[in-house]
TrEMBL record:
Protein name per Swiss-Prot or TrEMBL: glutathione transferase
Top-rank taxon: Bacteria
Organism of this sequence: Benzoatithermus flavus
Residues covered by the GST N-terminal domain: 2-83
Pfam hit, one: GST_N_3
InterPro entries: Glutathione-S-Trfase_C-like, Glutathione-S-Trfase_C_sf, Glutathione_S-Trfase, Glutathione_S-Trfase_N, GST_C, Thioredoxin-like_sf
Enzyme Commission number: 2.5.1.18
Entry keywords, A to Z: Transferase
GST C-terminal domain span: 88-213
SUPFAM superfamilies: GST C-terminal domain-like, Thioredoxin-like
Amino acid sequence: MAAPVVYGPGVSTYVRTVRLTLEEKALEYRLVEVDLLKGEHQEPAHRARHPFGKVPVLEHDGYSLYETSAITRYLDAAFPEVSLTPTDPRQIGRMQQAIAVVDAYVYKALVTDIVIPRVLVPMTGGTPDEAAIQGALPMAELCLRVLDELLEGVSYLSGGGLGLADLHLAPILAYFSRTPEGGRLLPSYPNLQRWWGGIASRESMARTQPGLG
Ligand SMILES: N[C@@H](CCC(=O)N[C@@H](CS)C(=O)NCC(=O)O)C(=O)O
């Protein structure tokens, strides 16, 4: 069986989630960079892989898949030796809930509205809109509170062992924790802080460290 191929830039949080899944499962894979700043994700070659022009895309033995949560579920089912999905129905429900919360609310609140203006905008010569960042804080705090509650009394988001939900959240926390807002807000969320301390020191995080964060 050929090694899976991941298309996307190493700096993308979604791409990092797929890479973390592969790393935690100790699988060989190849990363094919798609440069978002150069607009490569909108070019016909990438549009043929992903009709919406986003990253990541996974290719594996003639099978092509886009949407990060579909990719991580596929990898976990296709390579079951190291499982990142619990067997208990309630833990499966909690894991799916956490992934949906990350996709629907956390990514926008922490990455789109805080990390991008704080990190990417200055890198490309712009000035962040401070009023917009201030306006984003209530939703960011709601997200942090919800994640903190999900981690109450448990080590990982599903309530079982390390699982896919943790790998969906980890790349976002890696960037957010380095912003001034992250540094100021995270200490108020002790469960999330404890979780992040454990995740941040994993080998998979070191092996997928992007240039930005
Ligand atoms: N729903 C998609 C979202 C993927 C996504 O938004 N990726 C970002 C990079 S982190 C992207 O492709 N951005 C390029 C753009 O929006 O033009 C998934 O789960 O894979």
